[in-house]
């Protein structure tokens, strides 16, 4: 019984890891000219998306997972809104954890503040 449970847990973890990798690969694709993408790790992606959607410069918010963490992937116009402003909106909603910014086409995780 213990071996079966361990095998199921390992299979589940491998599946979740693969899903996270695929979602991360999709997150950097299809960014229109003049737009940028940023990913926020949040306590609740619905609360995070609700605090960002409809704000000036926020073009789209995609809810999802990265590993075992809820994330909001945001497509935004950097001429209208900054990452710091979006972080503040998420903090006001009490859901902000940290920011994952793309760096030369690769995701770079910022250290927690």
Notable characteristics:
alpha+beta; single chain; 113 residues; disordered C terminus; 3 helices; Alpha-Beta Plaits; 5 strands; 5-stranded antiparallel beta sheet
What is the highest CATH level, the class? Alpha Beta
Order of helices and strands: HEHEEHEE
How many β-strands, per DSSP? 5
pLDDT below 50 for ≥5 consecutive residues: which ranges? Answer: 24-28, 104-113
Largest sheet: 5 strands, antiparallel
- The fraction of residues in strands falls at 25-35%
Query: Share of helix among residues?
Result: 25-40%
Architecture per CATH nomenclature, i.e. the level-2 architecture: 2-Layer Sandwich
Mean pLDDT: 80
- H/I helix tally: 3
Radius of gyration: 16 Å
Please report the distance between the alpha carbons of the first and last residues: 43 Å
CATH topology name: Alpha-Beta Plaits
Shape: elongated
Largest sheet strand order: 2-3-1-4-5
Q: Which structural class do the helices and strands define?
A: alpha+beta
What's the number of structural domains? 1
Structure description:
This protein is α+β, with helices and mostly antiparallel strands and 113 residues long. It has one domain: Alpha-Beta Plaits. Helices cover 39% and strands 32% of the residues. It has 3 helices and 5 strands, in the order αβαββαββ. Strands 2-3-1-4-5 form a 5-stranded antiparallel sheet, with helices on both faces. Strand 4 (96-103) and strand 5 form a beta hairpin. Helix 2 crosses helix 3. The longest helix has 26 residues, at 2-27.
């Amino acid at each position: 019984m213990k071996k079966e449970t361990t095998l199921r847990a390992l299979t589940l973890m491998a599946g979740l890891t693969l899903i996270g990798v695929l979602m991360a690969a999709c997150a950097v694709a299809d960014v229109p000219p003049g737009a940028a993408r940023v990913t926020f790790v949040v306590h609740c992606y619905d609360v995070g998306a609700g605090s960002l959607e409809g704000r000036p410069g926020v073009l789209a918010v995609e809810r999802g997972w990265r590993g075992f963490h809820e994330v909001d992937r945001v497509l935004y116009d950097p001429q209208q809104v900054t990452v710091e402003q979006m972080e503040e909106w998420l903090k006001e909603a009490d859901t902000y954890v940290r920011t994952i910014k793309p760096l030369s086409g690769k995701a770079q995780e910022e250290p927690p503040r």
